[in-house]
Amino acid sequence: MPSNLNADLHCHSTVSDGTLAPEALAQRAAANGVELWALTDHDETSGQARAAVAAHDRGMRYLTGTEISVSFIGKTVHIVGLGFDAEDHRMLRGLVQTRGGREQRAHDMAEQLAKVGIQGAFEGALRYAGNHDLISRTHFARFLVETGVCKDTNDVFRKYLTEGKPGFVEHRWATLKEAVTWITQAGGVAVVAHPARYRFTANEEYALFTEFKSHGGQGVEVVTGSHTAAEYLTYADTAREFGLAASRGSDFHSPDESHTDLGTLPLLPSGLTPVWDLLSSRIQ
Ligand code: AMP
Ligand code: MN
Ligand code: MN
Ligand code: MN
Description:
Elements: E1 7-8, H1 22-31, E2 36-37, H2 48-57, E3 61-62, E4 65-72, E5 75-82, H3 89-99, H4 102-115, H5 121-126, H6 137-146, H7 153-159, H8 176-185, E6 189-192, H9 202-214, E7 219-224, H10 229-242, E8 245-249
Parallel strand pairs: 1-2, 2-3, 6-7, 7-8
Antiparallel strand pairs: 4-5, 5-6
Helix pairs in contact: 1-2
Bound molecules: adenosine monophosphate and manganese (II) ion (3 copies).
Residues 17, 42, 69, 136-138, 153-154, 157, 253 line the site of adenosine monophosphate.
């Protein structure tokens, strides 16, 4: 597989917090020229079989995917897994454990929102969740837009649901070691998702990549819908410094919400090892 491949290895369906079904996403990816695709629902792999079939029906190659929520030094970090065996039992158990606390968390979020006068948020958010095991802040955001509390989901995350704002609930996700181990033991490659999003200090970021590597992590998202053009170059340097392969993915969630469509990002900067080079035997 060439390094200038149109690969999109990060997006979400109705199995987590996207608004399109796996088949509709595959259709959109193929229409946009994606050649290698991965569906990476949060803490879930139940869309994988459908996504692989839909990819093949539309002439795309496929890698299995997920995006695991991790707690690292008191913040949430996302680790994308690619090319793992989707039937691996330790991985499946780990994902069940990781998403297990979401319902209680959603009740706690709704309780906090009620205190600032927003009633019915749990039921409201649940209506947007295609998978009731995976109620997420995105579903609350859609409810807050629908009810006119906020004008769009970006506005929601400025005023609610984030640290220090109403509706934010501390949550303990998987550890970095667990997430990386589940993915690698299942034959996949672990990738640090959208590193610029965490707003870590240089020391914190160094700690993240050092620990990630020590557990067997092998990749970093360089070109993602969450990065600016300057950040592509910053994280290309990180990939070289830490000897990591580079990934590319839109993080597409919805035609109405995502500013980056499937398959439309710039190609990886040259001179990097694309993550799909490590996964040639895992491509379906
Ligand atoms: P959760 O896993 O329930 O904490 O929800 C996290 C999801 O919320 C992310 O995957 C994004 O889809 C969405 N999200 C978080 N922060 C923002 C933000 N600042 N702007 C837009 N969407 C966000
Ligand atoms: Mn999301
Ligand atoms: Mn993410
Ligand atoms: Mn994502």
